[in-house]
Structures are given as C-alpha cells and as structure tokens.
Amino acid sequence: MLSHLSFRKQKTIIMILFTVVPLLLLLTFAYYPAVELVRLSFTNWDGLSPDKQWIGWENYKEVFSNPEIFGVFKHNLAYFVVGIVQNLLAIYFAVLLNSKLRGKLFFRLLLFLPYILNGVAVAYLFGYVFDTTQGSLNTVLGVFGLPSETSWLGSESFVNYTLASIGLWRFMGFNMVVYLAALQSIPKDIYEAAAIDGASGWQSFVRITLPNIYQIIELNLFLTVTGALEVFDIPFVLTHGGPAGASETFVMKILETAFQFNNYGLASAMSVVLLVLVVAVLGVQRYFLNKGRG
C-alpha cells in the first residue's frame, strides 16, 4: 500500500504509526481509566445503577475519618520493614555470588527460582509451613527444643511479619539478580586499582560498589515501596485479613468495599488515595536518595 510513496514519506508514516498506536493504547487502557476512577470517586455509584449521583468530597472524608479504612495502612508497615531487609540480603548475596565462588551459578538459580512460582501456589505452600499443629516450621522448632505451638498466622502482633517473610523468600532472588546485573557492569579494573592502593573489601564496597549501583538501589526501593503498599495475594489466600482484621491490607479493603458492599464510589476514592500516597512516598524517597547522593 505504501510502495508507491517515496522512501521519505514511507518513513514518516511508519514513524507516526509507531507513535500514535502506543499512545492510543496508553490513553485507552491507562489514562482514561485513571480519569474515570477520579470521576467515580466523587459519586455514590453502586456498580450497577446507571445513575451516578455526585456527592463531592464525602467519599474522601470517609476514607480519612474512618479508622477501619485508612487505619489498615499500619498493617502494610511490616511489608515495608521486611522489604528493606530483603534488599539488604539481596545486595549481600549479589556481592557474594559475583565473586569467584564455586557453584555460584547453581546458587543463583536456587535463589531466583521462588520468584517464578505462582503467588497463590506460594501462599498455599506456606500455609502448610506455618500451620500451628502440623506445620513444618513448628516441627523443626520442636526438634531443637524450642516452642513448637506458635500460631504464626493467628497472632495479631506478628501475623503481618509472618506474611511479609513469604514475600522476602519469594522476591529476594529477583532483587539479587537485578543487583547482580549492576555489579557485573562495573569494570574489574577499578577494584584491581583499589586493591593495589591498599583498599579493604569493605572500603571497595562503600567507595566503588555502592555508588555504581545507587540507581539500581533506588529502583528496587521503588518496587519495595509499591509492593508494600499494594500487597494483596498472600494475605488474601492465607488469612483473608484475619485474625480479627489484623492482616487486612488497603487493597483488600478496596476490593471488599467495591465487590462485597457494592460501594464503587468509596472504593474509587480509596484507590485514588492509594495512588496519591504511592506517588508521595516515592517523591520523598527520591528526594532523600538524591540528597544523600549529592
């Protein structure tokens, strides 16, 4: 169809198509739903009625004034804390497996394998691990004479840390691979020159390794923060928000509000709040990281 046109015009048309088509897809499946979400957040739509009554800021007032809604964010704190530990372990294993270690390819594969497993399957797997009476974890603790009847998923005080530890096991290998790729991009000559100048391993890590993987650390912290705020699958499968709502996350609350109570307007407002909170936290993160970098 374009054969009768000049090469210059063909190139221009192809460039326009390669620009317009992705832009249309982005507008259709990203920006339009986001705008519609904001619009619905100012209504009391029940998800079925064609009428969407405008109620202004009432949904947002409900989100911030009701501790049963906004208060569940404190449950997400455990995922953030464990996520930081996860990144520290990922850096440690990345540095270790980037060295001249025998069998390092096997250990890389071993640590990365949990990431490719399905999230629901992982949740069911750890349901057997953390079972109070017949769980493998309590069985192992009993062998060593430690308390072997701990209710890992039934205690309000640490159930979220128990669930977050599953995420550490599952995603640490992915973070390790990302850090490992960054480490392998650092020229070996720099380390050799530092060794000749008498730098210790720790000094090389602080002065050479960390500055060169700083942007990757920022990327993984971005994934950690968003993952901590948007966690859903593991607590939903294992505890359904229990005991007594102690492990309910904000995303679970949004889905419950929308599909169980048919309050799509309030659920939309909660989604907008989550989006704004993610952007705000990431903005603060970038500010302090860039400030520390400077």
From TrEMBL:
Coiled coil: none annotated. GO terms for biological process: transmembrane transport. The chain crosses the membrane at residues 12-32, 77-97, 109-130, 158-182, 261-284. It comes from the Bacteria. The keyword Transmembrane helix applies. InterPro entries: ABC_transporter_permease (IPR051393), MetI-like (IPR000515), MetI-like_sf (IPR035906). It is a multi-pass membrane protein. Keywords: Cell membrane, Membrane, Transmembrane, Transmembrane helix, Transport. PROSITE patterns: ABC_TM1. The keyword Plastid does not apply. Residues 76-285 form the ABC transmembrane type-1 domain. It is found in: Cell membrane. GO terms for cellular component: plasma membrane. Belongs to the binding-protein-dependent transport system permease family. This is ABC transporter permease subunit. It comes from Paenibacillus dendrobii.
